Amino acid sequence: MRIDSHQHFWIYNAQRDGWITDAMRAIQRNFIPEDLAPLLAQHKFQGCVAVQADQSMDETDFLIQLAERNAIIRGVVGWVDLCAPGLPEKLQHYKHKPIVKGFRHVLQAEPEAFFRNNAFIDGVKTLAAYNFTYDILIKAHQLNATIELINHLPDQKLVIDHLAKPAIGKDRTEWTHFIKTVAQNPHIYCKLSGLVTEADWHHWTPAGFTPYLETVINEFGTNRVMFGSDWPVCLLAASYQQQLQVLEDFIQPFSETEKQNIMGANAIRFYNL
User: Which class would CATH give 3-271?
Assistant: First the structure.
């Protein structure tokens, strides 16, 4: 089964979705399951994982409601306030919604001090008791703080979104160290997603992504990486087909089992789809 492990839906709201700047006009509109379903079918995907884009429980409920009406959504990665005193009660509530597989906080927007916040660390730890996963969304300047955070979470299923957003075409030394360090932890996975938007949106080439894909797959292996389109954000730099082609061309020499793992089996196992 082929699974797109990372994409988003939203009813565009200019006030709420301020992160979508005027430079990103291509995605200043609604994106709903009816838009994605033909693309998944065209490329022989049987489902997707819908990941939060807004930091609210309304967002989580919105994704749950979409999943109830659209079979292509095999799992939801929602948002919940991980620092809130009533976190266990909220997690128990979502435990009764089997479509909810895990949670994410937009760490890339937080200062490094937030990574060391005991309430936040304890909140992520609490997810393990409910068998929820946690997606780590960060930028390149937060790599060291992320390593510190991960060291506090030996029992939590974690996945690094978008290869930790390396600056494509720039010095890879610190990023490579990060990948080598976190990959030593068998409970951590990495999403092969989001690369096209970390490059020059208008002048990227597939070859420019090769060293990043090589590093991640060499370190994590083919059992702990998963394809994600990051649709519709990917549309800023590439069509669904273009971003998919980059990865499919790269893994073309791999065995059929390795391809199946990367294109779906690993996501199914990680998110318990």
Answer: alpha beta
Structure tokens at 201: 């949106």
Q: How far apart are CA 28 and CA 11, in angstroms?
A: 9
> Is there a contact between 159 and 190 (Cβ–Cβ < 8 Å)?
yes
Give CA separation, 184 vs 44, 76, 125, 191, in Å: 33, 27, 19, 16
Cβ 142 vs Cβ 108: under 8 Å: yes
Domain ranges of the chain: 3-271
The predicted-structure confidence for 14-50, as pLDDT tens digits, reads as follows 999 999 999 999 999 999 999 999 999 999 999 999 9
Phi, psi of 56, rounded to the nearest 5 degrees: -160, 155
**What is the per-residue pLDDT across 61-88, written as a single tens digit (0 to 9) for each?**
999 999 999 999 999 999 999 999 999 9
Predicted TM-score (pTM) of the model is 0.97
